[in-house]
């Protein structure tokens, strides 16, 4: 037998220390502040150029602010598995948001009611405060989302000192992270970390000659609205942060695979809800034609009308990446726990506000404080429930078989007897009237709404029996896409536009119906500004592809490459219509 020698190839020893089974957390190295900022020198130079300062002035006013921020966050990631989730992500998102927010100040006028002389003195302070608001917009995360420890398990106390100071004091070479499960985003916690980043001298300089800049800055960092004044600073920071996150997610989709789209939208949607509740008269609870109804069984928002108001408000803010479809907004709010679904999983509810003759489709807030947390006077709830009253449900269950199964209506008790029975069961003082005959069922019950549409006015003794509406065989059904809500909006809209071409002349079709589905050329996706690799990946993840990878088919006289959509996700295909006829 030969003698064993250590003849491992070069680099094998290094690989054995880097890759171990089971895997070992290597930790994050404790670098000094100069090394942290040197990695972002190009962005820092752009910040200096945007301020328009010389080197001496920049080093005296702005650079200490950047050093204090880097000292506090060090190489912490911003999130565990979403945007800026790599070491140094929290430092990078702060620098980028501060830069874009500072750029946005060039297009806005602060202190518009002040004189020119006053604005000349206040404008530099507003720009600096906007920069600070963008830099510290995610400063709450070390206090609420992550736990930092050394090798021995000793924890960093983020309320007491910056992370770099803790590492230096305990001579820590590498530190480790533990993410808190189900952490709730509490942006107001950033105010407790703000003194570690912004010195008292800087705040005093911002407050010189005015009483607005510091309150607007603190409101922007804490995420609280100022109801009596428009916070331009907060609007610039919010728009800059949305832009930075959207750019990161798009870059991650191109380089690293699937990003977690939509999970950062919760803050903007909740902020829009609170702004609408504070400023829009149509969102005053329990008023005529209101979007918000509040009863003992919860607070509800009329849907999808509320989604339209949210979309218009956020479009006016010019935030990138904001969803436009009510279904997408509903999915994001449900996932974030802002809204509550029914026990059977249905997202919407049917409510019966007083004075409404028909039921309204609405979504239910998980807590009324989501809308009115900062209000001085919380709204008063109705004394009676808004959901389907038990008396109406029992009456609808009694008359539904007569309407749906019997061709001729069956006589019911006289009007006097019905009125007596109704008076014993009514839970409210003024419920909608219940007809004593089955010919005109109450529209308050969801089952009856689904059975038939309200017929034209007719005498009670000659109301026709309801008949199901079926499409005529000579009328072709319009082609329509059936896509899961998890499909990104851009891909869904592009596919819907492609499917819509099948309702026109065959020469204008953008896709080809086949026996096993719908063949969509990749060129059709590119023409609608959708990247084919990203679209293919998204379609595969939601299970819409009949073939897992792109295929080649003959289309419009040539061989092209495309994807095959499963036929169960498209209704009204021309081939399906021919078979039906």
TrEMBL record:
This is TraI domain-containing protein. NCBIfam families: MobH. Pfam families: TraI_2. It comes from the Bacteria. InterPro entries: Unchr_helicase_relaxase_TraI. It comes from Ottowia testudinis. Residues 27-347 form the Uncharacterised domain. Residues 429-444 have a biased composition (Pro residues). Residues 402-475 are annotated as: Disordered.
């Amino acid at each position: 037998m030969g003698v064993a020698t250590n003849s491992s190839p070069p680099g094998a020893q290094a690989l054995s220390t880097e890759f171990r089974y089971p895997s070992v957390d290597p930790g994050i190295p404790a670098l000094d502040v100069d090394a942290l900022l040197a990695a972002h020198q190009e962005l820092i130079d752009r910040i200096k150029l945007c301020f328009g300062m010389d080197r001496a002035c920049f080093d005296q006013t702005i650079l200490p602010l950047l050093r204090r921020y880097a000292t506090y966050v060090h190489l912490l990631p911003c999130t565990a598995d979403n945007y800026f989730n790599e070491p140094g992500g929290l430092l990078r998102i702060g620098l980028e948001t501060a830069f874009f927010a500072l750029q946005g100040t060039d297009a806005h006028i602060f202190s518009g009611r002040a004189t020119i002389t006053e604005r000349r003195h206040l404008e530099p302070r507003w720009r600096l405060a906007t920069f600070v608001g963008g830099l510290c917009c995610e400063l709450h995360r070390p206090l609420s989302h992550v736990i930092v420890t050394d090798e021995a398990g000793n924890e960093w106390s983020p309320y007491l000192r910056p992370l770099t100071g803790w590492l230096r004091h305990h001579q820590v070479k590498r530190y480790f992270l533990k993410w808190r499960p189900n952490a709730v985003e509490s942006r107001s916690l950033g105010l407790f970390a703000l003194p570690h980043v912004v010195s008292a001298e800087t705040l005093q300089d911002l407050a010189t000659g005015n009483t607005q800049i510091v309150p607007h800055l603190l409101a922007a960092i804490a995420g609280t609205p100022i109801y009596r004044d428009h916070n331009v600073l907060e609007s610039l920071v919010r728009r800059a942060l949305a832009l930075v996150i959207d750019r990161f997610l798009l870059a991650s989709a191109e380089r690293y695979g699937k990003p977690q789209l939509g999970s950062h939208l919760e803050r903007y949607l909740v902020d829009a809800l609170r702004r609408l509740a504070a400023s829009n008269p149509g969102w005053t609870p329990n008023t005529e034609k209101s979007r918000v109804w509040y009863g003992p069984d919860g607070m509800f928002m009329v849907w999808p009308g509320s989604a339209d108001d949210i979309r218009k408000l956020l479009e006016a803010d010019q935030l990138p990446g904001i969803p436009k479809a009510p279904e997408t907004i509903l999915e994001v709010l449900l996932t974030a726990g802002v809204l509550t679904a029914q026990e059977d999983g249905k997202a919407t509810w049917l409510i019966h506000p007083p004075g409404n003759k028909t039921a309204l489709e609405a979504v239910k807030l998980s807590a009324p404080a989501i809308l009115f947390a900062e209000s001085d006077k919380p709204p008063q709830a109705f004394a009676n429930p808004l959901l389907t009253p038990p008396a109406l449900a029992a009456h609808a269950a009694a008359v539904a078989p007569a309407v749906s199964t019997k061709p001729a209506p069956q006589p019911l008790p006289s009007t006097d007897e019905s009125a007596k029975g109704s008076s014993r069961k009514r839970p409210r003082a003024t419920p909608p009237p219940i007809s004593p005959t089955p010919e005109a069922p109450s529209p308050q019950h969801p089952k009856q709404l689904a059975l038939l549409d309200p017929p034209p006015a007719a005498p009670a003794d000659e109301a026709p029996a309801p008949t199901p509406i079926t499409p005529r065989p000579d009328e072709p059904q319009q082609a329509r896409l059936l896509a899961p809500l998890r499909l990104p909006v851009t891909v869904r809209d592009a596919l819907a536009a492609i499917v819509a071409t099948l309702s026109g002349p065959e020469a204008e079709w953008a896709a080809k119906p086949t026996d096993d589905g719908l063949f969509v050329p990749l060129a059709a996706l590119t023409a609608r500004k959708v990247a084919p690799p990203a679209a293919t990946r998204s379609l595969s993840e939601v299970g819409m592809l009949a073939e897992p990878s792109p295929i080649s088919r003959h289309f419009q006289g040539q061989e092209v490459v495309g994807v095959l959509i499963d036929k169960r996700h498209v209704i009204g295909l021309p081939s399906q219509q021919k078979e039906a006829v």
